[in-house]
Amino acid sequence: MTRQPYPPARRDDVVEDLHGTPVPDPYRWLEDPDEPATAAWLADQERLFTAEMGELPGRERFKARVAELLRSGSVGAPVWRGERHFFMRRTPEQEHSVLYTADSSGAERALLDPMALDPTGLTTLDAWQPDKEGRLLAYQISVGGDEESSLYLMDVATGTRIEGPIDRCRYSPIAWLPGGEAFYYVRRLPATEVPAGEEQYHRRVYLHRVGTSTEEDVLIFGHGMEKTNYYGVGVSRDGRWLQISASRGTAPRNDLWTADLEASSSEAPELVVVQEGVDAQTGLHFGRDGLLYVFTDRDAPRGRICVTDPTTPQAEHWRDLIPQDPEAVLSDFAILDDLDRPVMLAGWTRHAISEISVHDLATGERTGEVPTPGLGTIGGISERPEGGHEAWFGYTDNTTPPTVQRYDARTGETSLWAASPGAVEVPAVTTEQVVYRSADGTEVHMLVISPPGAEGPRPTILYGYGGFGISMTPGYSASILTWVEAGGTYAIAQLRGGGEQGEDWHRAGMLAGKQNVFDDLHAAAEHLIAGGVTTPDRLAISGGSNGGLLVGAALTQRPDLYAAVACSAPLLDMVRYELFGLGATWNVEYGSAEKPDEFAWLWSYSPYHRVREGVSYPATLFTVFQSDTRVHPLHAWKMCAALQHAQAADRPVLLRNEAETGHGARAVSKTVDLAADQLTFLAHHTGLTA
């Protein structure tokens, strides 16, 4: 096939001196999407992408199979309010999941359908929270992928919108007071009240009374605190206890306060410190038995559960109920108390495989385990707020679309409560968990998904993330199944920086340890090659967001090791990342270029700055989203221009720039198109025939 010429991109002589290091930035002009030269360059890139992809075989087959496998639909675990419950479900023909409610008879009613709100499919339901009685619903929606959630209130019985929009509510928790007359929530300050460029920050906790103007909202917390703070807020079921947490950006630690709303007013709660300035994450659950249950990684990187009296919530009063496990990571818990011997269910992941144990609520003694459908992922354990003997949890694995399971503590049995509504023929695959050693000898786990009986080297996609304590766990993926069914192998490496082995594992891959993440990926690739699974000319890597940084660093550090790269919504200019999107909230994960020692970490691997002319780089596809307000697409724009200029091999460097889509949720049809393009590109450059 004849390679199309790359669109011209001027190289400006922009060099900054940072801590004595000259930092070139020839494509800084691409940071401005409103610049005519940027718009022209993007249009040229779109024409190039369309021309190059139009010549590749197999796209329609990939697209059809991904779409077919996504016709499984999905279903989410219930949220109970008395005899009423709320849940999400997507049927095979729907573009978005719909929020339903069901009464004691089981009769269902759709409450919120994003497509009914906006037939274009560009509106997403970001979050929702019923009040404690299930009579009112707070929900948040955004448009065009910008994730700038607006908050609304609905009367559940009639489906009538009664308040909203309340803007600036991105990532806001909702904590209802009993009776549904008021709630605490988090809202950013108006842009007019903050310095230019800081509009995404400066959150505050407010109390809002239903039926009043937001001008009357009472400021509760956040004044004078760190601008990048995120706040959590919760109110106990009985309305007595308020908790507020504060985290600087995405830092793996939080400060925490409680207030007794019987001893002080909801408008002026008297906050008591639970922990402040402590390097740990802690969450609280006020039990129906009057005790305070503490979920923490303080002195326990894999997590533990403690118990205390709510009037003495500080660490010196905690008593271990379920101590840290030497191997598994604590992920969740629920209390079932309508039993002769009340129990706590504890959710764990062991090398990213989920399990649930049963414990005596008074002593913490392990008394059994909850049967689960297989070796997969459990998505949260929920119980009725007023107590009971039942729990519900989501479950999925590599070949099982999402289901909801019901556990009955009286019988000890687990049963299917709800399945994804679509019937699809899922291909058979073989999943193996392997262990390999990274450059420094650290053992790393990896899931390898292959066609049954596959032998010999074959086209392989290696996927990773390695950041923010996020674990790579098994789950139903139409893209993975489509790739494996076509004859390829798909490997998922559980790199440092993730949460698969607890908080220590996360911290081994952040800040000064970030190179460990890249080394873990290279070692995974070498393990797959040494084991005969694949070869360098048949190996692709794929990652998005922080995983886009991962594969961007990988292709610049070891271009010889990979044949193709799919790099989605990436961070790539690590010198300037803090200046755009939500970048300043991530300097607790990566470091800040303003500090000399942290700049040195970032400079050592910043992919955009590691591109070298005359190097044979892998075939690379950047996929970005024009409305992305988390990771600005400028990272991929600049890196694409740099790679196109430097590429010495006859392998393409392409940019897929999608409008009216953001970093997070999107319509199913958009997901299908993106997956088809990525699979087609990687298949062509690794030799997989669809």
Describe the SSE topology:
Blueprint: E1 15-18, E2 21-24, H1 36-54, H2 59-70, E3 74-75, E4 79-81, E5 84-90, E6 98-102, E7 108-112, H3 114-117, E8 123-130, E9 136-143, E10 150-155, E11 160-166, E12 174-176, E13 182-188, E14 203-209, E15 218-221, E16 229-235, E17 241-248, E18 255-260, E19 272-275, E20 282-286, E21 292-296, E22 304-308, E23 319-322, E24 329-336, E25 343-350, E26 353-360, E27 366-369, E28 377-382, E29 390-397, E30 400-408, E31 413-419, E32 430-437, E33 443-450, E34 460-463, H4 478-485, E35 489-493, H5 503-507, H6 514-530, E36 539-544, H7 546-557, E37 564-568, H8 587-590, H9 596-605, H10 607-610, E38 619-625, H11 634-646, E39 653-658, H12 668-686
Parallel strand pairs: 34-35, 34-36, 36-37, 37-38, 38-39
Antiparallel strand pairs: 1-2, 3-5, 4-5, 5-6, 6-7, 8-9, 9-10, 10-11, 12-13, 13-14, 14-15, 16-17, 17-18, 18-19, 20-21, 21-22, 22-23, 24-25, 25-26, 26-27, 28-29, 29-30, 30-31, 32-33, 33-35
InterPro entries: AB_hydrolase_fold, Pept_S9_AS, Pept_S9A_N, Peptidase_S9_cat, Peptidase_S9A, Prolyl_oligopep/macrocyclase
Biased composition (Basic and acidic residues): 9-19
Organism: Planomonospora parontospora
Task: Provide structural commentary.
The chain is of the alpha+beta class and 690 residues long. Helix content is 18%, strand content 33%. The strands form 9 sheets. Strands 32-33-35-34-36-37-38-39 form an 8-stranded mixed β-sheet, with helices on both faces. Strands 3, 4, 5, 6 and 7 form a 5-stranded antiparallel β-sheet that branches. Strands 8-9-10-11 form a 4-stranded antiparallel β-sheet. Strand 9 and strand 10 form a beta hairpin. Helix 2 packs across helix 4, helix 2 crosses helix 12 and helix 6 packs across helix 7. The longest helix is centred in the first third of the chain and has 19 residues. The radius of gyration is 25 Å and the shape is globular. The model has no long low-confidence stretch (mean pLDDT 97).
